[in-house]
Amino acid sequence: MPLSDAIRTSKNGIVLSLKVTPNAKKPIFPAGYDEWRKAVEIRVKALPEKGEANAEVVELVAQFFGVPESAVSIIGGAKSREKSVEIIGIEKEKALQLLAPKL
User: Fold this and answer.
1) Residue 55: Cβ within 10 Å count
2) What is the DSSP letter of 28?
């Protein structure tokens, strides 16, 4: 399954590859899968200014996986549309189980 290419295990959970679209009409996660970039798509309402879009990414991902925002951190691509987000306390199989029906 190509979706599994967007998720890798980390020491404390998983790292999820995201493709972010800022300034969207409404926030959506997951918003699709980019096979070329091997990333789950996310749309945020915030503009990519002063970390607002990043904060919304963290909030949406935490809500989707049912973890506190403190368990989600952007570990790569903070100033890019392509981000790596670590989610503590989630296993790869559980993440696939939650994401697959939505994509």
Assistant:
1) 14
2) B
Instruction: Report CA 43 to chain centroid distance, whole Å.
Output: 10
Handedness of CA 102, 86, 19, 64 (dihedral sign): positive
pTM value > 0.85: yes
Cα-flanking dihedrals φ and ψ of residue 20, to 5°?
Answer: -100, 135
pLDDT digits (tens, 9 = 90+) for 71-82: 999 999 999 999
Whether the CB-CB separation of 64 and 29 falls below 8 Å is answered with: yes
Q: Which CATH entry fits the domain spanning 2-97: 3.30.1200.10, 2.30.130.10, 3.60.70.12, 3.40.190.10?
A: 3.30.1200.10
* pLDDT tens digit sequence for 86-96: 999 999 999 99
Distance CA 71, CA 96 (A): 18
Chain centre distance of CA 28: 11
